[in-house]
Amino acid sequence: MLRVLSWNLYHYNKKLGTAVKAVKRLKPDVVCLQEVHPDAFPMLEALDGYTLHKARDFHEDHNGILTEQSYLVILSRLPVSRHHVVNHGEAPSDSIVGWLTKWVECVESQSVTVQTDEGPVTVVNCHLSCAVSMKHRQVEMAEVMAGHVGDSQNPVVLCGDFNTLGRPWTNLIAGWVFGIRWAELFVNEQDLFDAFCARHGFVQLFQHVLTHPLTFGNLDHILITAKNLRCDYRRIGRQRYGSDHRMLVADLTPF
Asked: Which domains, and CATH codes, for the chain?
């Protein structure tokens, strides 16, 4: 069995100690975290039995001065044969929100290949951009797949915050400031995400589940390849421990 936990920790989380303890209590084999503030690293590095692997998540670019650096982190207590990082570029988010916040999002994504009793499994961790068009997020998803999965025959677990925000009513209310284009105004982004999963043979373990209460959104996911992974148990955290997202946990069996 492989227990995987995925969670957007929230960069401005004021309860990091409590959040890290919550992760530890669940005893996951692999942990995928997004929006990890540098202050969290001493606590994460102190978790006994885990190796830590990091990549850049997002930052703010104020005329070349980079601030608010946030990270992606994978923790593993299984042997890791490979840690891979894909760079997605450092262009500022092309939207009103992006211009105001100076966000540079989805700088990198990461993956590890862990050794289980049933063989190698690839676990991918990503945080797609928020203040961009749906088309831009589709490009990022394609880059994640090409960079981390490709033609690998390993079982794949794809974790992260996919920021699938687009729904007709939210597009009309706020989409224009977040980069939604006219052609996307009446598009339900979940339909695009469902098509992506079907195309690549992924099962959504948390489909149509509220993971981000602030936006009433299903932004966070654990996806597994249907041909060689089975989900035996799944749960979504009730408490958020200072984050604006709920954590996801799944027990998986490769076959």
From this structure: 2-254 (3.60.10.10)
pLDDT at 193: 97
**Whole-Å CA distances, 140 to 27, 32, 202:** 31, 18, 17
- The predicted pLDDT at position 218 comes to 96
Residues 6 or more apart whose CB falls under 8 angstroms from that of 71 comprise 36, 37, 38, 54, 55, 56, 57
The 3-state secondary structure of the chain, one letter per residue = CEEEEEEECCCCCCCHHHHHHHHHHCCCCEEEEEEECHHHHHHHHCCCCCEEEEEECCEEEECCEEECCCEEEEEECCCEEEEEEEECCCCCCCCHHHHHHCEECCCEEEEEEEEECCEEEEEEEEECCCCCCHHHHHHHHHHHHHHHCCCCCCCEEEEEECCCCCCHHHHHHHHHHCCCCHHHCCCCHHHHHHHHHHHHCEEECCCCCCCEHHHCECCEEEEEECCCEEEEEEEECCCCCCCCCCCEEEEEEEC
Choose among 69, 67, 70, 66: nearest CA to 33.
Answer: 70
Q: What is the mean pLDDT of the chain?
A: 96
Q: Can you tell me the distance from the alpha carbon of 4 to that of 76, in angstroms, rounded to the nearest whole number?
A: 9
Chain centroid to Cα 212, Å, comes to: 13
At 66, give phi and psi (nearest 5°). Answer: -90, 130
Euclidean distance between CA atoms 94 and 132, whole angstroms: 6
Widest pairwise Cα distance in the chain:
50
Q: What is the pTM of this model?
A: 0.96
* 8 and 220 Cβ atoms separated by less than 8 Å: yes
Place of tokens 């290949």: 113
